[in-house]
Amino acid sequence: MSGIKEVAKLAKVSTATVSRVLNHQSNVNPELRERVLAAVKDLDYHPSNIARNMRRQTSKIIGIVIPDISNSFFTGVVRGIEDIAHNKGYKVFLCNSDRNPEKEQMYIEVLAMERISGAIVVPYREENFQPFEKLNIPYVFVNQTLPGMQIASVVLDNFKGAYGATKHLIDKGHTRIGLINGPKNRSVETQRFIGYQKALLDSGIQIDANIIVSGELFADQAEEAADQILSVPDRPTALFALNNTLTIGTLKSISKHGLLIPGDISIVGFDDMPWLSFFTPPITVVKQPTYRIGTTAAQLLFEGIDNDGNIKANNVILEPEMIIRSSTAPPPHKR
After folding, report:
1. For residue 40, what are the CA distances in angstroms to 11, 106, 223, 241, 246?
2. What domains lie within the chain, and their CATH numbers?
3. What's the distance, CA 190 to chain centroid?
4. Rg, C-alpha atoms of the chain
5. Residues 264-322: pLDDT tens digits?
6. Whether 264 contacts 308, CB under 8 Å
7. Cα(36)–Cα(7) distance, integer angstroms
8. Would you say 238 and 176 are in contact if contact means Cβ atoms under 8 Å apart?
């Protein structure tokens, strides 16, 4: 069995450096840290952490891996998780993956080495979860799932939310509804896109690819996508942005083009943010129960922790809420 000396030898560092990395001390050169973590992975090194946690019986820590703590959606989810964990006497270890699969992998490996009691993750790559599987660490997915993985998860009915938002605009009289889409390879955006398409088709409205543009996941990209849509000859009378950061970029583009909401164009966003209700005019949104997503995921996780790490592959789907505000109105030609 490998020990700390073998890790140090493979990484070409001192045993003190290995110790500092494994104890998450900040005074380590990033390049050396990466070498140590790579050596730990190659040697499948766990003994010191296992021994330490055996002495304290259990870590009483759960890990949370999310893509962006600055996003208000994840802030609400984490708060829900933390409240349940605190009530059960557990601490939380919060990791920010930046939507980077390699960074996600690194954090999962670190959490596994720490022998956490369980984890709640917004997942990006299936093979990253092997350390949890090897050590029988229970984990739950939130917000999205991965194809082929039967893992307990808590997600929104994204299809229903997008269908309802699009139908709301259609009922207002809109037939030209532009879409600011997210990445096409994620389950969340896929279901929202399908909901948007189905609402149009059910109402006999032809889908126009010229007014459907991916804004990826960031506000500046969404602004560029909205610029593209608003520049087509037959400009849409409404826009639907598929997450909160895309909504920000879309609003910036609308303002840049000198358009009034809802006088010139209506807008619906997916996800609510506190300031959207105070915006002029207040923005119509599909609201997600972020706090409840967090508490539900935490409850699933602790059921697994209490059952020797075994969690039923239960996919909990929560209902969206349509909040209609002043940013949607009939198109100008129908008033």
Report:
1. 9, 11, 42, 43, 39
2. 1-45 (1.10.260.40), 158-288+321-334 (3.40.50.2300)
3. 14
4. 23
5. 999 999 999 989 999 999 999 999 999 999 999 999 999 999 988 888 888 999 999 99
6. no
7. 7
8. yes
